[in-house]
Amino acid sequence: MPIVATLIANPARPELSDALAETARRAVGGGAPDWLAPGIACDIALGADADRTTVRSTIVEALAGAPVDLAVVDTLDRRKKLFLADMDSTMIEQECIDELAAEVKLKDKVAAITEAAMRGELDFAGALRERVALLKGLDTTLFKRIIVERISLTPGARTLVRTMRANGVHCALVSGGFTVFTQEIARIVGFNEHHANRLVVDGGRLSGHVVEPILGAEAKLNRLRALRDRLGLLPRQTLAVGDGANDLMMVEEAGLGVAYHAKPTLAEAADIRIDHGDLTALLYAQGYRQSEFTH
To answer: Is the pLDDT of residue 48 over 90?
Structure first.
């Protein structure tokens, strides 16, 4: 099966030059660079006998630390039909539970637990229960203000989802966070559906508990499988992206699994790691041209 290597720079710093593209092409003996977006992304076509692992390592070595991400993928079903995305530190730039903790002046303590959980150093469910317990008594009327004042979309989020939706892709937001946030982010970005944990509320304030069972890594994996089966898709027709250890099972199961500015555990396991670009990198990795983007 033919493969393609896609070089991707950050659109905010379009540093992918003709010289860099040619260096990569020569290193692997590929076809002439096909520019998906000038200075940002280009494809280098390779034959069916090319080995993806070898191509990847060869290009990485040839580019010698240039701020360019690399996707090496099969051309069959390159454009996916199902997309699942994590929310916190993936589709948005924050961890929502940390922002809630800021309201009770416990952000540093909660953020440290969040970081350890995302690195896979703590049991996710246990860490979530521990953090939610610290939020007991928080007034739920604060949620809207937190979303407006503290939460920002990751660059490229809207374009990624809207472009995929425009091309018939089913998009699901799956988060180990909370529905009070996913419902709003899903609406703003344009997801078909959203799934997350539910906070228990008592008299307009958080009770310090989360509704069981907790949506964690296995639930994300099960959601991917359920949607894939419901839509009648093959595994290779699916795409998943995340940043932390609780995304690992979902990302490994997807036909194309992406680690976005991710923790080491996920970055090492994913098919593609995006360290420099924004979320539109996932479109370029599927062969979309910038002229095809829906904003």
So the answer is: no
Summary mean pLDDT of the chain: 97
Q: Hey, is 287 helix, strand or coil?
A: coil
Backbone angles phi, psi at 204, to 5 degrees: 80, 5
Q: Do 14 and 150 reside in the same domain of the chain? A: no
Given a cut of 90, is residue 1 above it in pLDDT? Answer: no
Give the residue numbers annotated as catalytic, written as ranges. 86, 88
CA distance 261 to 89: 8
**DSSP H or E stretch at residue 143:** helix 142-150
Angle between helices 142-150 and 179-189 (to 10 degrees): 50
Residue 294 lies in a domain: no
pTM for the predicted model, two decimal places: 0.97
Q: What is the DSSP letter of 139?
A: B
Does residue 188 sit in the same domain as residue 70? no
Q: Using CA atoms, how far apart are residues 66 and 53, in angstroms rounded to an integer?
A: 19
Q: How many domains does the chain have?
A: 2
193 and 85: one domain?
Answer: yes
- Indicate which CATH number applies to the domain containing 53: 3.30.70.270
pLDDT at position 65: 86
